Amino acid sequence: xxxxxxxxxxxxxxxxxxxxxxxxxxxxxxxxxxxxxxxxxxxxxxxxxxxxxxxxxxxxxxxxxxxxxxxxxxxxxxxxxxxxxxxxxxxxxxxxxxxxxxxxxxxxxxxxxxxxxxxxxxxxxxxxxxxxxxxxxxxxxxxxxxxxxxxxxxxxxxxxxxxxxxxxxxxxxxxxxxxxxxxxxxxxxxxxxxxxxxxxxxxxxxxxxxxxxxxxxxxxxxxxxxxxxxxxxxxxxxxxxxxxxxxxxxxxxxxxxxxxxxxxxxxxxxxxxxxxxxxxxxxxxxxxxxxxxxxxxxxxxxxxxxxxxxxxxxxxxxxxxxxxxxxxxxxxxxxxxxxxxxxxxxxxxxxxxxxxxxxxxxxxxxxxxxxxxxxxxxxxxxxxxxxxxxxxxxxxxxxxxxxxxxxxxxxxxxxxxxxxxxxxxxxxxxxxxxxxxxxxxxxxxxxx
Length: 448
Ligand code: NG1
Prior knowledge:
Elements: H1 2-14, E1 20-31, E2 43-57, E3 62-67, E4 75-78, H2 92-106, E5 113-119, H3 129-145, H4 151-161, H5 172-179, E6 184-189, E7 194-199, E8 204-210, H6 220-242, H7 255-258, H8 267-274, H9 282-289, H10 293-300, H11 318-340, H12 344-360, H13 367-378, E9 383-386, E10 394-400, H14 404-423, E11 433-436, E12 443-446
Parallel strand pairs: 3-5
Antiparallel strand pairs: 1-2, 1-12, 2-5, 3-4, 6-7, 8-10, 8-11, 9-10
Helix pairs in contact: 2-3, 2-4, 3-4, 3-5, 4-5, 6-9, 6-11, 8-11, 9-10, 11-12, 13-14
């Protein structure tokens, strides 16, 4: 068992006993993609794969981290609210993200720790291994220091904390990692974080299949990912300038509260009036937002490193991003209601609609994910869609328990043994392919 191996490695590395063992699971998102940072809900569930950590308190403020996987070398740093980051992509940045945020909250009285990490979540697969590492690090530091923190507060802190690595994402991953429950999906609402457990329909499972295309948010996908929140911020700036009579929106999720859509016959007429073009240059977006291009860049388009985001060659696709976010929010509500009344068929249909919107409007799918999703549907899944940030990673499908094996076999044959060798012979085909039910959230075990 991985926990035993982990504590053995801890002992041989640090020549002492660990005092706490932590498990922080990955997740799949069932529906509600790229809605979290816009202030709209999501519906993820924890999966039975996790980041594990064994830890002990140190007398000083040093955090000494090891990983059972040799590609992640040992690192050491001090607990502090501003820890200098390692090179982009370095695994220690996720641990630093958690430690820096906790040091900011609890002060430098927090002592350091020795930690050994391990885990079995496939990385860069959209299964949230990075947030699981952030959460595991936070739980370890709190546990060894004997500090109690409510999971909802911790989830909010870690969502902010993870921005340390440069993503401008939302709070879904950290929250479901901490708040997941066996047999239940978790509906999350944001700003401020609220959660509701939604019992997963009896007799159904989720099939998770990796497209084998890596979506590492430290590489090109980071630029692609961060462009989406930026386009949504531009939409907000334009809406605020267009309706000077409203209290300005902080994010698209404030729209229902300001009753903006009530002024229009339909979502389309709202989009036609505000965003008639498919794409916008920086100059046009600035004009519509009542800003100079320089101000627009400064206010909405900076990276964490203080560098302006590049203007996309095909312009800012604000109209379709807004259409995705607003329709996806409605699909999350309808999915929760469908699940509550046991209507798996409707839930599957909404998943299919969500995938289409992620692909066409939000531009986050890939030919591989589209292929995988159609194979899953043709094989008998009630619904199938990409999950997580997109640009690669996994697809999820809602399947009847008694059909899971046959669908799995079809996907193996048609995707992994036919499509991939034909289109990407270079790829390692030992990807993630598993059937899951909603699993428990993070746990901390004291060995004292
Ligand atoms: P993943 O799939 O873990 O990269 C990202 C964001 C989420 C959410 C989804 C899209 C982070 C840590 N995660 O998830 O908050 O925006 O994309 O729905 O930024």
